[in-house]
User: Fold this.
Amino acid sequence: MRELVALKCKQCGRVAYPARARCLTCRGREFETIEAQGLAKLLTFTESANLPLGIDERRRTLGIVEFENGVRAMGVLKVAHPQLGMKLKPSWQRVRAIDGEPVFGLTLDAA
Amino acid sequence: MRRVAIVGAGMVRFGKREGDSLMDMLTKASLSAMDDAGIGDGPVDALYVGNMAAGMLNHQTAIASALADTLNLLPAAADAIENGPASGGSALKNGVLAVASGYYDRVLVVGGEKMSSVIGPKATDMMATMAHPQAEYIYGATLPSLAGMFARLYMQKYGITPLQLAKVAIKNHNNATRNPYAHFRTAITLADILTGPQAPSNNPVVAEPLRRYDCCPVSDGAAAVVLCPAELAKSFGQPAVTVAGFGQATDTHTLQERDDPTELRAVRIASQKAFAMAQLAPSDVHVAELHDAFTILEIAESEQAGFFEMGEGAKALDEGVTEIGGRLPINPSGGLKARGHALGATGIAQVVELVWQLRGDAGERQVKGAEVGFSLNFGGMGNNVLAFVLRREA
Assistant:
C-alpha cells in the first residue's frame, strides 16, 4: 500500500518502520524506500478502553502486524474476534483527530 | 570515581493532593530530605529535578530554577531532567555522577509530578505523547495499550495467568496498607478483583488482558534525596547508604521493532551494569523496588533483572518469595500499583523506600536485616531504564 512507506537497509536488508537514521542491525545509513505489501499477519493486539482525546470511541482494538515483505506496523483492527496469526487486509483510513484535524493511518479488516 | 552516599531521604504522601501545587510538593519533599540529612542552613552545591510534564500539565517550565529560588539554594547549580516516567531515575543518576566526578559535594535530587489537575482523556493523551508520534500515537496507543499487547505475548509465552497478575496487585496493595506515604492504603482480595460477583464492575478491562487493578494509579507526589561523597557521610546524622552501582540502557521506541517483543532488553542491560558496578549479584539483594506500572511488569522485570529464571517469576510470586518475609520482597512500599506513580517522582520514591529499608526505618513493612537493595525505574514501554543497587555501609 502506497501510504505505508518503510525503509530497507541497503547494507543488510533489514526493514525499518517507522523511519530511522541508522539501521537497527548494522548501523548503515543508506536505505531504499519500500511499500508495505500483501496481507498483514497479526502479531499481538489489545482491546483498549482507555482512549485519549481525539478518538470518539469507547473501545478500540489496536494490533501490531507484519506484512508479507517484513514491514511491521501498528494499526486499528476492525475485526470482531481477533486471533494471533490471522491474516488481515490493510487499508488507510481516518484514525483520529489531533487538534481538530483528521489524521489517517493503517486500519485492518478480516482478509 | 568517588563512592556516593545517600545521607537524606524524604517524600510526601502520594495520591490526589488537593491544595498542593507541584512546587509545594517539590518543596516539602526537598525540605524533608534536607532535614533528614541535617543540612540545616548549610549549602547545597547542585539541584537536580526530575519531572515529566510540568509544562503540559501545570503551565510551568524551568522548575529547577524556580525550586532553587524557593528553597534558597542560591547560587547552587540547578537542572531539570525530563525522561518520561524514568525522569526521577535519570535525575538521580545525574546527581550521583556529579558527586562521583568530584565536582560537587552536596547535591539535592528531587522528583515530582502534579497529575490530578488534568483528568480523563486529556491526561491519557498527555501520557500517550511518549509513544511514537507517527507509528503509535496517531492510533490512540497509550501506555496501558502497549502494555496490554506486551502482556498478551508474555503471558502466552510463559503461561502466566490472570490469577497471577491479580496476586501482584493483592500483594502490593497489602504492602501499601503499612506505608503511610502510599496512595492506596486499602487491602484488596481475590474476590474483589477476580472471582467475586462484583469483580467485573470493580475491575473492568483497561487494555485487555490488563484490567484496572493491573494498572497503577495516576498520582500526585514528590520524593527527594541528599547525596554526598561517601567519605563525608559520617559528618551527617544518618547511617550511610551508598549507591553501590547504577546502570542505564535504552531500547527501540516502538514495541514492533523489537526482534522479540517479550524481551525487555533495556531492563536486562541496565540491571547487569548496576550489578557489575556494585560487584554484587541479584542473589545478594535483600529487597527490591520494581516498576510495576502494570502487574505484568513486576513479573517480567523480576526475571529480566536477573532475580529469577525466565518464566519463573510468577512461580516465585505463587510461593510467596516476593512477599515481605519471603526470600526477596518486591515492592514493600506497595510499588507503583499502590504506593502510586507520580511519574517524575517515582524513580526517587523507590530509592527513598530502599534507604528507609536499609536503615531499618521502614516500620511495619520493614524487611528484616536488609543490607542490599535494588530499584528499577522504567520509561515508556521499556525504552529507557535505570537500575540502582544500594548498600548499607557498616
